[in-house]
Structure formats: structure tokens, C-alpha cells
Amino acid sequence: MQSFQRHRDVGLRVLSLTEGETDTVSLMATIACELFHADERFDWLGFYRNVGNETLKIGPYQGGHGCLVIPFSRGICGRCAQTGQTQLIDDVECDSSHIACSATTRSELVIPIYDSTQTLIGVLDIDSDRQAAFDQVDADELQQLMDAVFRKI
Questions:
Q1: Are 95 and 77 a contacting pair, CB within 8 Å?
Q2: Which of 9, 17, 61, 110 supports an S-S bond with 80, CB 3.0-4.6 Å?
Q3: Please, are residues 11 and 2 in contact by the beta-carbon 8 Å criterion?
């Protein structure tokens, strides 16, 4: 947590609230709530869970509705799950793979989530109605937070 700058306060809250918890859905629900309410740039924030067969299904989230099912072969979340690489998209309208769950989304940050065995649990998806709302600091710090929480289970 010492390398956190922008997300330090919410990161400390998340770590405190999730300490000792091993249930993935409980962790996701708590994180979604805390992160969503911590940053005005976040218009939708949630998890898509890896349910096998190269398929993501919606998990705990905050904001309007999300897509229920996303194959690894479709969308920015699918690409993140397939490649294991964070997706930092400044303008979703310029990304032909973007799945428009909301007509107002302009930028997106998707972070892969792994457990202690390096198994993909799912992805953290953050949408903003602002173009270029996220940067590499957001990506790096939120990845560190997800690793700190989920790599313990």
C-alpha cells in the first residue's frame, strides 16, 4: 500500500474491510461498493466472474445494469480475461470490440483478477461517462489493490 497515491484512502478501507474474508462474492461486493463511492469518475463499477468455458458472468456491481454474459472472445472485458492484460481505453467509441452496455460510457478500465494459484477469478470493470477518465496510475494502483485482496485466496 505504500506505493498508493491516488487511491490510498479507499485502498486502506478495502483492505481493512476484507481482512480475513475468503468468499469471492463477499469480497467483490465490498470492493465494488467502496470503490464506486470513492471516485466521482466511476459511473459503473463491477466484476465479471470467470465461470469457465471462456465465459464471464456479471458479479457484484454498482451503477446501472451491466451485460449478463461476456465471452472471452468479445468486448474489452473479454479481451482482458483472454490476455490477462489490463485494458485502459480512453475512448470506447474508437475500440471496435467495445460492447455498449450503456450508451453513455466513454472510457473504460478493466483489470484482471487472479487468486493465489494464478487462476483467473474474473475482471474488475470500471466505466466512466468522461473520455480519458483513467490513466496508468489508476490502472497500477487498482491492480495492486486487487492483487492484495484476491491473491490471498
A1: no
A2: 110
A3: no
Residues 63-118: pLDDT tens digits? 999 999 999 999 999 999 999 999 999 999 887 777 777 778 999 999 999 999 99
**pTM: predicted TM-score of the whole model, two decimal places:** 0.95
> What is each CA distance from 145 to 12, 26, 35, 50, 51, in whole angstroms?
9, 16, 11, 19, 22
Across the strands, what pairs with 69? 57
Distance CA 144, CA 130 (A): 24
pLDDT of residue 139: 97
Question: SS3 of 8, please?
Answer: helix
The C-alpha atoms of residue 132 and residue 88 are separated, in whole angstroms, by: 9
Please state, in angstroms and rounded to a whole number, the distance separating the CA atoms of residues 142 and 50. 19
Three-state SS at 78: helix
The set of residues, in sequence order, having a beta carbon less than 8 Å from that of 62 and lying 6+ positions away, is 32, 33, 36, 37, 42, 44, 45, 46
Provide the 3-class DSSP secondary structure of residue 119: coil
Helices vs. strands in the chain: H and E counts, helices first: 4, 6
